[in-house]
């Protein structure tokens, strides 16, 4: 089992750093899945138990100048590692002006992702700063626990408003309540609502648009017979929503949300070479 990669391009390094910083805000620990073509950062807290889940997919060719890996076996050319993304984020903070960044899987008392940052120096030789990030290798028998989540059979799918605007609204609302109601319809309308014994506050968004999903078989058929005016809604933990909005550093070109009434809110954020899904379960 081997893995090594190298980043030379500063723009690619900065972009990769922003992605890792975003993931570090969303998950204390997560699974890094490596394949020959892609990297995946996966959080699989059981939604049924009130936990969020996350799936972030990157094409390695858009970030790395060199990328080599050998999985556990020829027929299973993948590697699954458990890590603390904050540790990787800290290591990359030292790489702001780096000439190169190398990442490889090593074994130093325990398995590690070793990040070697080559920094420019006035002397003829470069300075190299090395970070050893402990990881746990996930055995093959557990890989099925980390499959890509399926898009839920939603009641409403809607494009999100500008995330910075949504973030400022949610930050003000979180001082009033621990939960927030997200509701939307097929007319491109979305509301964020706080309702307590003392106060009721609603922010309205209009003309957001609804994504043109192509249904496979019966999937997503629940939207076809729905009255466009009818709102689908879910009450969620406001801190979990704020965490998603506050952590965003990749500036998605497309952001949308699928609502399964009273069950789950599913966010999809797209930015060229980054695909992030985030699931927040509804509160009872």
Provide the structure class: alpha+beta
H-E order: EHEEEEEHEEEEEHEEEEHEEE
Instruction: Tell me, briefly, the overall form.
Output: elongated
In percent terms, what proportion of residues is strand? 35-45%
Give the tally of structural domains: 2
Q: What integer is the average pLDDT? A: 89
Which radius of gyration do the C-alpha atoms yield?
21 Å
Strand order of the largest sheet: 10-6-2-3-4-18-17-16-11
Walk me through what this model shows:
The chain is α+β, with helices and mostly antiparallel strands and 284 residues long. It folds into two domains: 2-146, Box (Proliferating Cell Nuclear Antigen); 156-281, Box (Proliferating Cell Nuclear Antigen), CATH 3.70.10. It contains four helices and 18 strands. The chain has helices spanning 10-26, 85-93, 163-173, 238-246; strands at 2-7, 30-34, 38-44, 53-59, 66-70, 79-83, 100-108, 110-119, 127-134, 136-137, 156-159, 179-184, 190-195, 200-205, 232-237, 254-260, 264-271, 274-281. The protein has a nine-stranded antiparallel β-sheet. It has a five-stranded antiparallel β-sheet with strand order 5-1-7-8-9. A four-stranded antiparallel β-sheet has the order 14-13-12-15. A hairpin with a 3-residue loop joins strand 16 and strand 17 (264-271). Helix 1 packs antiparallel against helix 2 (85-93) and helix 3 (163-173) runs antiparallel to helix 4. The protein is elongated and about 65 Å long.
